[in-house]
Design a protein that fits this description.
Ubiquitin-like (UB roll), 7-stranded mixed sheet, alpha/beta, single chain, Alpha-Beta Plaits, Rossmann fold, 6-stranded mixed barrel, 835 residues
Length: 835
């Protein structure tokens, strides 16, 4: 391939680079430093700072290395007297009005201007006049502070907004020495990605409100880690001092988040320092939870579980994990339930479906020619996905959206479809049934009968969408070469997962889903499901069962366990008497919270391990304090099946222990047979790899890399009736749609100050037509009722909501939206009245 490279000389050194490479990039590849303030590898060259000027033989004048493309036999000089004089002059001009803030600047020790002045500057200032003064400590937005005096006008922040976010949020105002960075029309710089401009700033002009004045950069200890607050699993660098995490920064990589972080991932970790953290075990005595030692708590757990096992057998005990658990904790919970308790009663779903096999990565989206965004709002659920989708559209890809609300990404869509709540699967059935048979052949086996009769006209009558929408989406798949089906939190039933998989198989489209929670894919891979063994092996898989018997020293049960959505009824019917809840808070997260409450109160024995005394944990017999993010090491598997490693940057608060260790401690206290004495999470992951081939070498991620652990498994076809409209319940004439918002008040990240401060007031979004009909105005207090519960919320009149529906976000308070009703297969109807 050398004949396709461009050869040039830089400072006498011969360099061969790809065509289109800039002189600056070529110099970097050769190990030659050319200073620059405005250039960044993830932004287009701008040539603004003029620090990178170099001499090129046979070219008149100095040239900007960042904006000059290499040519064959080019000869470049980076350290001639003219070049060095230019650098000194530019730096002297920059320092003319730059304040001497280094002793109090967050960027001190990590400032390019500071470094370049020491290396290339004059050494002393010739300037004796008063410096020009500009704004100091300006609150640019909820997360960013601007110091206009420190700004070097590199415009990285402005270019990030325009090139990456595709939004005009920041700009340069006035001229000459009075030029300054600011927001357009004085609006707040309120974007979910605002913190990235702090990482991009080469000086201390932009600082993070959450980190400001907390530490010097040289005091920080850094470790590669991953974010576990949404299913993307962004790669980041965790930085802390004296045993506590202080900030997160994006890690330079290309497959997951491309180096960018959303503000939830940047600031959400701070929940670990919340005053309400559990610091000691709690045991219920005389009707109250009282502090206890670990020995006392573990003995009580063993006593309570043994009592139920002796009285009613292993199937009277069930465990519910959380998609927030690490892979190691999930694996040990699966092992504990199956090997120590003797049942398959283990699950991790909170009113959601297990994701389909992962077939694409986030970065694959940028090259897709067709993207079907189904029942997901990346802006609120998986923000970095939004950036990849925007890049795909800018490169010529077509975006089709199927969602009950009109999304912000809709301005990029070729077509946006808003099916009635509970009918989205029927729309997919229509697409599958109207594909070009000449190109794709027959639909996958088992689906011909299911989609029979799903003509565009029938789909239109069911969904309220235009018949042409069905044929247009089907035609898009027929012409696509690199299609991706991206689905989100609105996919809550197994039937929809099944038809998504069928559509993918029928068209060659790859699936990428983020339903279910941050590590939903990882905990399912580890066996937190009642119908599959670790690695998604069937319960009667002889090879998997043999491996389990060899590694665990106990046989896995054959009878399928109780699924999470049936668990609460099973408890009330006394078929299940004891519950073990690992990081799970079903009272806050699951549908039918009243049914969950009744089950928790009816259970004979309940154990909860968590970082906080959640509403669920408050009803337990024993509460075991668990470590929070940053306090325990472990792995997590993102939406694409990519495994990343979470670094332990600080010690657990109080007596809290890592989730995986708590499960092992409980197993030993119960007298479980087999190996339960683990030295580290890596040892647990290594054992899991002996049972799950896709994770065989996953321990390699401890060094900070990315490991592909995608598992192919079969998704059961749906019955024909599963594609039909969902049933309705409740008293009212408005269909209720719920879903997450990025900044909320949940029991985890919602406790972080920088997250809670950005959470909106609890609201209900209603269409202008319905608002006018009901006499509701924007900002007015209203009551939303379903007959079984009522919530008092603030009305937001929004054209994003279709007539006949309302949207109430989850986890904003003051009450739980799930009390209004609704669950997979059932849509709640509500009424609204002004109060």
């Amino acid at each position: 391939m050398m004949d396709q490279l461009v050869t040039l000389k830089i400072d006498g050194r011969e360099v061969a680079v790809a065509p289109g490479t800039t002189v600056l990039e070529a110099a970097r590849q050769a190990g030659i430093e050319i200073p620059t303030l405005c250039n960044h590898e993830k932004l287009f060259p701008a040539g603004l700072c003029r620090l990178c000027l170099v001499e090129i033989e046979k070219v008149r004048g100095l040239q900007a290395a960042c904006a000059t493309t290499v040519r064959q036999d080019m000869v470049v000089h980076t350290d001639t007297p003219a070049v060095l004089h230019n650098r000194r002059m530019v730096l002297e001009l920059l320092c003319t009005n730059h304040p001497l803030d280094c002793p109090i600047c967050d960027a001190a020790g990590d400032c390019r201007l500071q470094d370049y002045v020491f290396k290339y500057g004059r050494g002393e200032s010739r300037f004796i006049e008063e410096k020009r003064h500009k704004g100091k400590a300006i609150r640019l937005g909820p997360a960013v502070i601007l110091d206009q005096e420190r700004c070097v006008l590199c415009q990285r922040c402005v270019r990030f907004c325009e090139e990456v976010l595709d939004e005009k949020l920041l700009g340069v105002f006035q001229r000459g020495a009075r030029s300054r960075i600011g927001t357009l029309d004085g609006h707040s710089f309120d974007t979910p990605f605002s913190g990235n401009v702090v990482d991009l700033c080469p000086v201390g002009a932009l600082t993070d409100r959450g980190f400001r004045f907390k530490a010097r950069t040289w005091e920080l200890k850094s470790a590669p880690s991953v974010c576990t607050l949404c299913p993307v699993g962004c790669r980041l660098v965790a930085e802390g001092r004296e045993g506590r995490l202080l900030r997160m920064r994006g890690r330079d990589e290309t497959q997951v988040n491309g180096g960018w972080l959303c503000d939830l991932g940047r600031h959400g970790f701070a929940y670990a320092d919340h005053a309400d953290r559990l610091r000691t075990p709690l045991v219920r005595r005389d009707g109250e939870l009282r502090p206890a030692t670990w020995g006392e708590a573990l003995a009580e757990v063993a006593r309570g579980l043994k009592a139920v096992l002796d009285e009613a057998g292993p199937h009277a005990v069930a465990a519910l994990g959380s998609p927030r658990l690490s892979n190691e904790a999930a694996y040990l919970l699966s092992k504990f339930v199956r090997a120590a308790l003797g049942t398959n009663n283990v699950d991790s779903r909170m009113g959601s479906a297990f994701p389909a096999p992962a077939q694409a990565t986030p970065a694959d989206l940028q090259a897709a020619d067709v993207i079907l965004l189904f029942q997901g709002d990346p802006s609120e659920e998986a923000p970095v996905i939004e950036l990849w989708v925007k890049r795909a559209v800018r490169r010529g890809g077509r975006l089709y959206i199927v969602h009950p609300r009109r999304l912000a990404l809709g301005r990029y869509a070729t077509l946006q479809v808003q099916p009635r709540p509970g009918t989205a699967s029927a729309f997919l059935g229509g697409v599958l049934g109207n594909l070009d048979r000449e190109k794709w052949g027959e639909v996958p086996e088992g689906w011909g009968f299911a989609i029979a009769g799903y003509t565009p006209a029938k789909v239109a009558s069911l969904t309220g969408c235009a018949p042409e929408a069905v044929t247009e989406v089907a035609a898009a798949f027929s012409s696509a070469q690199r299609a991706i089906i991206a689905y989100g939190a609105g996919v809550v039933d197994e039937a929809t997962v099944a038809i998504l998989s069928a559509l993918g198989r029928a068209t060659g489209a790859r699936l990428l889903g983020w339903n279910g929670g941050p590590n939903a894919r990882g905990v399912a891979d580890m066996g937190l499901r009642p119908d599959r063994l670790p690695g998604h092996a069937s319960l009667d898989d002889a090879v998997a069962r043999g491996a389990i018997k060899r590694v665990w020293g106990a046989a896995a049960p054959r009878e399928p366990g109780v699924a999470a959505h049936d668990l609460w009824q099973a408890v009330q019917e006394k078929r299940v008497r004891a519950l073990y809840l690992a990081g799970a808070d079903p009272l806050s997260d699951a549908p039918d919270p009243e049914g969950v409450r009744q089950a928790l109160e009816a259970a004979q024995f309940v154990v909860a391990q968590d970082s906080f005394l959640t509403p669920t944990a408050a009803l337990a017999n024993v509460v075991l304090p668990a470590a929070a993010y940053g306090e325990e090491e472990g792995s997590a598997t993102n939406l694409a099946g990519q495994v990343g490693w979470m670094a332990a940057s600080m010690a657990p608060l109080g007596q809290a222990r890592p989730h995986w260790r708590i499960v092992a401690d409980v197993a030993r206290a119960l007298g479980a047979l087999g190996h339960w004495q683990y030295a580290s999470a890596l040892e647990v992951l290594a054992e899991a790899g002996t049972l799950i081939p896709a994770y065989r070498d996953a321990t390699a991620v401890a060094g900070g890399g990315v490991y592909d652990a995608r598992i192919e498994y079969q998704v059961t076809p749906a019955e024909p009736e599963a594609l039909g409209p969902w049933a309705f319940e409740g008293e009212g004439d408005l269909a209720l749609v719920t879903g997450p918002v990025l900044f909320d008040r949940d029991e985890v990240a919602g406790r972080a100050p920088m997250v809670a401060g950005r959470a909106p007031e609890a609201y209900v979004a209603i269409s202008p037509a319905d608002a006018a009909r009901l006499g509701v105005s924007d900002g007015q207090a209203v009551e939303v009722s379903s007959g079984q519960a009522a919530l008092r919320l603030v009305a937001r009149v929004s054209e994003a909501v279709a007539a006949g529906t309302v949207f109430v976000p989850e986890h904003l308070g003051p009450g739980n939206v799930h009390t209004l009703g609704g669950r997979p297969g059932v849509v709640a109807r509500v009424a609204i009245r002004p109060v």
